[in-house]
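Internal tracking record. Fields below are filled automatically when a chain is submitted to the structure queue. Please do not edit lines marked as system-generated. If the sequence contains nonstandard residues, flag them in the REMARKS field before resubmitting.
Queue: standard
Priority: normal
Entity type: single polypeptide chain
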Amino acid sequence: MNELLVMRHAKSDWTAGHADFDRPLNDRGIRAADRMAGWLLDEQLCPDHVISSPAARARATAMAVVFCCSTDNHQVEFEQRAYLADAFTWLQLVASQPSGLTLICGHNPGLDDLVDHLSASPVPLSDSGKLMTTAAVAHFRFDTSWNELDQGSCELVQLVRPRELV
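SYSTEM-GENERATED OUTPUT FOLLOWS
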């Protein structure tokens, strides 16, 4: 059984005047990334492997998980193609993953599309009608190999958003 965690980057700071790629997390984003990292640890969902967009906001979000879960830094990849990647690109990026639990961290709309594409069941939206809100984590399980992921091929175990955690 393989597992995939799809995580959208936490809330970024639009006021700092940075280029899109360089936007850091804002205070709320830092808290949300830490909260979700702690939740993953509590749920024993610490990733064996991490693939993240190298953009500052995604990198900081992924590293919150890596730090909290004590994931081996050698198992963390900041992949340029993951920056603003679409669902198809994400499928290419995970196709060669070894067995285990992989976390990907990136951006919308690609992650919305990926979660919708992979889920065998309808994906629950937030109260505001959104799918992958900032710092949300979708947890999937599947029996196929990574390169066989296809539409509806995964069980969506849960989709958790920071505001839903007490």
